[in-house]
């Protein structure tokens, strides 16, 4: 204290605070994946992935991607976008990735667009992989796969069947129709003349 002042109670010059620190709270991230678009060769296909964090802790933007989706060779990746974080379309590897944080009880939506390759047929199956921090230690040590909510059960891939190629029917211009009619008429006359001669 300044000169002339005295401290009435020196015992109050310090204090002690005790806190109990529990284990770090990890996240629990799951994902659904649906598909829409034109399911035929050359058609555009749109995947919608929703990643949800059930907590109890938040999912940090840890090192590495929190979501990876390698499209099958029957599809050509076009673009990837997200409502938060960073979505990247790696065209060369046909892989869409997402990197970002998801607070507890929150979600993020990722949109992936692709085109059906020439020669593709049958059923196209696809499933993305989620990486998350289940222990809260700052590393994505746990993984999960996306689920198609339209299919009963969990961890189902998202499938769609490609339409069979339509039969190619040639079309004629009005001039072509006229020429075809003349040719048929000439053939009819020729066949009739041969019958009379016989």
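Sequence proposed for the structure above (198 residues):
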């Amino acid at each position: 204290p300044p000169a002339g002042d005295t401290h009435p109670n020196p015992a109050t010059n310090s204090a002690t605070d005790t806190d109990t620190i529990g284990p770090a709270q990890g996240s629990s991230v799951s994902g659904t994946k649906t598909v829409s678009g034109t399911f035929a060769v050359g058609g555009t296909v749109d995947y919608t992935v929703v990643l949800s964090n059930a907590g109890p802790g938040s999912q940090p933007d840890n090192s590495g991607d929190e979501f990876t989706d390698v499209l099958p060779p029957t599809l050509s990746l076009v673009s990837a976008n997200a409502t938060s974080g960073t979505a990247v379309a790696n065209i060369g590897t046909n892989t869409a990735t997402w990197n970002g944080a998801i607070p507890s009880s929150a979600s993020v939506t990722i949109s992936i667009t692709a085109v059906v390759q020439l020669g593709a047929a049958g059923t196209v199956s696809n499933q993305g992989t989620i990486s998350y921090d289940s222990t809260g230690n700052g590393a994505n040590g746990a993984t999960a796969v996306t689920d198609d909510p339209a299919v009963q059960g969990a961890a189902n891939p998202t499938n769609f069947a490609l339409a069979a190629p339509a039969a190619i029917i040639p079309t004629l211009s009005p001039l072509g129709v006229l020429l075809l009619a003349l040719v048929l008429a000439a053939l009819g006359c020729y066949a009739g003349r041969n019958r009379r001669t016989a």
